[in-house]
TrEMBL record:
Pfam families membership: GMC_oxred_C, GMC_oxred_N
Family: Belongs to the GMC oxidoreductase family.
Protein name stated in the entry: GMC family oxidoreductase N-terminal domain-containing protein
The Glucose-methanol-choline oxidoreductase N-terminal domain, residue ranges: 276-290
Entries under InterPro entries matching the protein: FAD/NAD-bd_sf, GMC_OxRdtase, GMC_OxRdtase_N, GMC_OxRtase_C
Keywords: FAD, Flavoprotein
Highest taxon, organism lineage: Bacteria
Cofactors demanded by this protein: FAD
Organism: Comamonas faecalis
Length: 556
């Protein structure tokens, strides 16, 4: 093969793309090219956990997307971070290890007709790459834990490190006690298949450093293989499609810009899009694969009319309630002076612990927004800090934030190109809170926040509701206030969803192959038919693990 012809071309070196590159290049007879539009992950703030504050909104690591003004958010537009560097979103995200609930995957299997998506099956895929801290000494882990988290004869040893956090906060411990007093059980594992409970999140870190997918799956495994090629600064512009000798449409390569030069690369077996739930549908649409009317409006020849490309956008919207407190340390007070900031920096330098080792959220809880819910449908991210909006300074008073999100929103949005020019950002329209169900869950979830805040365990800190404010009580008031204060939790999925053959909006078949197009798959969060009940990074890794098996099987 030439320097521009490979067996597999993977577009996007993020969460899914890094794992796929690892698995596919393990076959020495297959040449793999991994393309990443962003730079290498050698920016120091990527690796320091609190560095997400400096990576989000930074063109060095973020695509800098914005949503369209949203009626559900009372006309507001939100920042929409997407990773633009090796490791993708795993280099800038919240580092929380969450699989979702077993029922999520049972639903996927029912939607697609593919039993491989059932919980019992995907559990094995999660286990295949997991390296859980409790299995550092397998004798200390029970058999049930090994069944859920073990790999390599239950001794751990996968690539994806899951660690415990390296700090605790009195205010968070008090919240956990209050949640239990409100009827939410304590848990030490959110990844059993039923994540109901309250406890500290486990994180994708190693020895106090962020553990992104570039470290886990690319270095050193892939970079030491002669059949693996990585190009950074390689911006895909268009997919190449041709009619084969069998009369079928086939994707045969990618046109891209690298170092300012136009380059065409060819794939003899498959092109795999792992560019994410925003960039993958954008690239498909630019290549003539998508809704016919949209493509024609922008002067793009229709190669394959697939109306579901860019549709079905789902996301978790977090409603950030803030409570002032007294008599307890929060980051607002600890980081309020140069001396305090110096102490925080020294603590991290000496022990890789303290506030600089923090994930954006440390404590979590899963429960029901109302007693009639059949399963936990809301998730809390609790933080020992507060601010007006992400990226703004901390408040000058001690406070903590209780963010709550609807795990299973019924609102659906879209991602659509705004031009035939790949340099123009797509229009991202999540349509948050656009259904009566989502507005009711928003109101109910704020009431759950208040119920927890009123429990005895927090009383000694005199919590005072600062946002949204106790004067707002009715369903209508609370839903409207949710629109004022809510923000994305950065979990877009569903824009290239898989489904059955008779589903007109399914872009992919149940094994992630693009409908009516040979040699092309989409393997990223866009393929999810419905959003998982928790953070979406690790489920995306699981999907890549499943896809790698299918790709290798189909190309033997």
């Amino acid at each position: 093969m030439s320097d521009t012809t490979f067996d597999y071309i993977i577009v996007g070196a993020g969460t899914a793309g890094s794992l796929l590159a690892n698995r596919l290049s393990a076959d020495a007879d297959r040449r793999v090219l991994l393309l990443e539009a962003g730079p290498r992950d050698n920016y120091h703030w990527i690796h320091i956990p609190v560095g997400y504050l400096y990576c989000i909104g930074n063109p060095r690591t973020d695509w800098l997307y914005q949503t369209e003004p949203d009626a559900g958010l009372n006309g507001r537009s939100l920042r929409y971070p997407r990773g633009r560097t090796l490791g993708g979103c795993s280099s800038i995200n919240g580092m929380l290890y969450l699989r979702g609930q077993a029922r999520d995957y049972e639903q996927w299997a029912d939607i697609t007709g593919e039993d491989a998506w059932r919980w019992a099956s995907v559990l094995q895929a999660f286990r295949r790459h997991e390296d859980h801290w409790r299995l550092d000494d397998p004798a200390q882990a029970g058999e049930d834990f090994k069944r859920l988290h073990g790999s390599k004869s239950t001794g751990g040893g996968g690539e994806w490190r899951v660690d415990r956090q390296r700090l605790r906060w009195d205010i968070l411990d008090a919240f956990a006690q209050a949640a239990q007093q409100a009827g939410i059980p304590a848990t030490d594992d959110f990844n059993r298949g039923d994540n109901e409970g309250v406890g500290y999140f486990e994180v994708n870190q190693k020895n106090g450093w962020r553990w992104n997918t570039a470290k886990a799956f690319l270095r050193p495994a892939c970079t030491s293989r002669s059949n693996f090629t990585l190009w950074t600064g390689a911006q895909a512009q268009r997919l190449i499609t041709e009619v084969g000798s069998d009369g079928r449409l086939r994707c045969t390569g990618v046109e891209l810009i690298r170092d300012g030069q136009a380059v065409t690369v060819r794939a003899t077996r498959e092109v795999i899009l792992s560019a994410g739930a925003v960039n993958s549908p954008q690239l498909l649409q630019l290549s003539g694969i998508g809704p016919q009317e949209l493509l024609q409006r922008h002067g793009i020849d229709v190669v394959q009319a697939l109306p579901g490309v860019g549709a079905n956008l789902q996301d978790h919207l977090q409603i950030r309630a803030v409570y002032k407190v007294q008599g307890v340390a929060t980051l607002n007070t600890l980081a309020s002076s140069l001396v305090g900031k110096a102490r925080i920096g020294l603590q991290y330098l000496l022990s890789r612990s303290g506030p600089m080792s923090m994930a954006p959220s440390q404590l979590g809880a899963f429960t029901r927004s109302s007693p009639g819910m059949a399963h936990p449908n809301i998730e809390f991210h609790v933080q020992p800090l507060s601010l007006e909006a992400f990226g703004e300074p901390l408040h000058d008073f001690p406070a903590f934030t209780i963010s709550v999100c609807n795990l299973n929103p019924t609102s659906r949005g879209s991602v659509q190109i705004t031009s035939g020019d790949w340099r123009q950002a797509p229009a991202i329209a999540p349509h948050y809170l656009s259904t009566p169900e989502d507005r009711q869950v928003a109101a109910d979830s704020l009431r759950v926040v208040r119920r927890i805040a009123q429990q005895p365990a927090l009383a000694r800190y005199r919590p005072e509701e600062y946002k949204p404010g106790p004067q707002y009580q009715s369903d209508e008031e609370l839903a409207r206030l949710a629109g004022d204060i809510a923000t994305t939790i950065f979990h877009p999925v569903g824009t290239t969803r898989m489904g059955r053959a008779n589903d007109p909006l399914a872009v992919l078949d149940p094994q992630l192959r693009v409908r009516g197009m040979a040699g092309l798959r989409v393997v990223d969060a866009g393929a999810m038919p419905t959003i998982t009940s928790g953070n979406t990074n690790s489920p995306t890794l699981m999907m890549a693990e499943m896809a790698a098996q299918w790709i290798r099987r189909d190309n033997t």
